[in-house]
Specification:
Blueprint (H helix, E strand, L loop, with lengths): L5 H4 L2 E5 L12 E8 L2 E6 L3 E6 H7 L12 E4 L3 E10 L8 E5 L2 E4 L2 H8 L7 E10 L3 H7 L3 E5 L2 H5 L6 H8 L15
Length: 189
C-alpha cells in the first residue's frame, strides 16, 4: 500500500521543528532522496563533520587527490550507516551507483565519483556525507503527522549556495516562516 506522502516527499526538504529533541536532527534540513511504502532515505544538508575532511577520506581510501581536494568539508548525512559515504550532487550523473532525486540532483555512493572529486574532475556541486537518514515503513509519515517535520520544496540554491549554518533558517524563510515565531508545541487543526 502506498503512503499518502510517497509521491510528494522525494525531492523535497524536511525541516526539523523546534521541538525536535533528537540531537542527530536538531535544526536539521534533510533532502529526501527516496520515499516509498518501504520507507524513506534522506541526507542532512546542514551539518558539517568538523573532525574529518576530504583529506581524511582520500587518505583512508588511498586515493590520489589534488591539493585543493584535501580541504573539502565532510558532512554528517545522518545517523544511519555511519561508516558509509554518500554524495549528493549535481550533473553529471553517469556514475556507477546513482539515484536520481530531481532532474538536476542525484545521490551516489560509488568509488568512481569519489575518485573524480578527489582529482577535481567530479560534479561542480556536491556534498560528501558520512551516513544518511532513514525511516522504516510509515515511520516518516507518522513523524510528519505528529508535527516533527515541516516539508517544503527542495531548493538547490539552499543546498549549493547558502552557508551551512544558515540553511535551516533559510529553508524556513522560503516557506514564509520566521524561525523566531515557531512554537515548539505541536497542534492539529
Amino acid at each position: 500500500m502506498e503512503t499518502q506522502f510517497a509521491d510528494t516527499l522525494k525531492g523535497r526538504f524536511l525541516i526539523a521543528m523546534p521541538a525536535m529533541k533528537d540531537p542527530n536532527f536538531f535544526q536539521s534540513v534533510i533532502c529526501v532522496c527516496d520515499h516509498t511504502a518501504e520507507g524513506a532515505l534522506g541526507i542532512i544538508i546542514n551539518k558539517i563533520h568538523f573532525s574529518l575532511s576530504g583529506q581524511t577520506i582520500f587518505r583512508e581510501l588511498k586515493m590520489p587527490c589534488k591539493p585543493s581536494s584535501k580541504s573539502i568539508h565532510l558532512h554528517i548525512g545522518g545517523p544511519v550507516r555511519g561508516g558509509e559515504l554518500y554524495l549528493l550532487h549535481g550533473p553529471p550523473f553517469a556514475w556507477d551507483s546513482t539515484l536520481m532525486i530531481t532532474e538536476s540532483l542525484a545521490l551516489s555512493n560509488s568509488v568512481d565519483i569519489l575518485q573524480a572529486i578527489a582529482l577535481g574532475q567530479g560534479p561542480r556541486f556536491f556534498l560528501i556525507t558520512l551516513g544518511c537518514s532513514g525511516w522504516g515503513p510509515g515511520q516518516l509519515d507518522h513523524e510528519i503527522q505528529n508535527n516533527v517535520w515541516l516539508t517544503s520544496p527542495l531548493s538547490e540554491k539552499i543546498i549549493s549556495e547558502t552557508p551551512v549554518e544558515n540553511r535551516w533558517t533559510e529553508a524556513l524563510k522560503d516557506l514564509g516562516i520566521d524561525p523566531a515565531m515557531l512554537s515548539d508545541t505541536a497542534g492539529h487543526a
